Structure prediction request, 347 residues.
Amino acid sequence: MMSGQDGQKKEGKRPVLDPNSLKPWHQMVASGSGALITAITMTPLDVVKIRLQAQAKPMKSGQCFFYCNGLMDHMCHCLNGSKPGTTAPWYKAPSKFNGTLDAFVKIARNEGVFKLWSGLSPTLLMALPATILYYTSYDQLKYRLDYKQGVKGEFWKPMLAGGGARLFACTVIAPLELIRTKMQSRPFTYAEMIGCVRTAVSEEGIMSLWRGWSPMVWRDVPFSVILWLNYEPLKARICKEYGLTTPTFPIAFFSGAFAGTVAGVLTQPFDVLKTHRQLEMGEIGDMRRSKEVSSSTLNIMKRLYAAKGLNGLYAGTLPRLFKITPACAIMIGSYELGKSVFLADVK
Prediction:
């Protein structure tokens, strides 16, 4: 007869995740699904937040501002007073909102429900493949390093895998990120953008397309290292407590939220630096002048610290955490859930 304790262990036992249990395309589908869920969930929250902030301090035409829907940053050009028939700007002169719920209701009622997902299309076009590349590379690198969950002394493997995967993803998408940022900084036609890129490549070489790579790496690689350094041990500890070998959605959700919060706080100065570099690109009318105008990442850090001290380097920490914490929780939780679905099939 099976004892109650043995029965509990057997009931809680789940398939072991090893290098041969999942194919890369399983991880690609799981990460793509997680990115889609994250974007759909987070975009309306950020649209409402931007509208509420704009209500308190309306912006002038021609200004740029940033928002992030949990997966990527968007530079938005304020086009108040644009002519009828032109493309609707992402920023719209705000209505009178009395709070978050009131903003949801009024935007949906007066402008249409789909306005709550403004900016979703460029997110899916850009962030979806980037997220798939990142998460798939992370798992593949982790497996190649023969990472064993819950074993002491293995902490460096998620760190190395996370940093390597993010460096690889940043390098691949950097040219697309530069082009996307330029197109969001002011109205560009595709013909103008192609001509701008050709001119930059012919005069400065192909490496000009990777301008902005440095601040992106400075922020995203440390964030990834810290994220997985905290996520994997916490996930392993909770799984061990409940007698599980793979995490359930709540375990992954909670662990992702905690790890994302820690990584967000520690890498906030690099996020501030990246925003300053992107704003510089948004103020430049010609890519050929960007080399002359832009400062190095280190110079920007020194200038900010000299002017405002640590407060300048940690500006916007709380608003960023309000986006990062749920975004990491949803993304990682959805990703682990997707993998568990494939695990059930392969087993």
Observations:
- The two ends are 26 Å apart (CA to CA).
- The domain at 19-43+120-346 is CATH 1.50.40 (Mitochondrial carrier fold).
- The chain has one domain: 19-43+120-346.
- The chain is about 70% helix and 5% strand.
